[in-house]
């Protein structure tokens, strides 16, 4: 029995190593390629390390403020993802409170109907969503990416289920003392649901940062694009990437914010699998 457990443990480690390698090798190759010249990339093909290490790719990235302003794109992405995350936390916390603590006719029917609708692929909503954004005059503005998706039913579901683990006796005791719904929410519920809000916020930030299809549709102004849409401009009219080193350098710069976010908040990502209830018994 002990030997079987030991073998299973080694197999699990082997699997994790393989998965880690599948993820890490392309990233390492991108980092190395960002220090290679275009001539070397074309003539030498795949190499583990560059023949000559250069930093011109990064210099050109930082100096380019017209055709491919990478730093402006990064700032746009940071602003959009941060604002989207903050508003998501506000919306899902209030909505989750309504669906879990307040009683009104058709509450559960409404919730599960919206939850069912959310299972439709997002691509189905692209044309209607763009039409709404266009009518509101939000094309080529940050609001085109900040507002859509604020009330994601997946996040609301997590918050609702988390709140259901908080005893209703806390609400009833507060009401006996004359507390309103707003005071119960802000003073009692909100501090208790902080773990699930952090997790939803982290996923919302990474989701907004990595979004590609939607920003390509709603942005045509080069200076207002987020970095995911902007990187597409580094290819020519035939769809070929002219400067592979600069492309790799830009991609590496684009993943740094989310990489730092994961390193500093990885314990909250891991805690996502333990979000069973608001108060553990």
UniProtKB/TrEMBL annotation:
Record-given protein name: ABC transporter permease subunit
Membership in a protein family: Belongs to the binding-protein-dependent transport system permease family.
Major localization class: membrane
Membrane topology: Multi-pass membrane protein
GO cellular component: plasma membrane
Annotated organism of origin: Gracilibacillus thailandensis
Keywords: Cell membrane, Membrane, Transmembrane, Transmembrane helix, Transport
Occurrences of domain ABC transmembrane type-1 (ranges): 74-265
GO biological process: transmembrane transport
Organism superkingdom: Bacteria
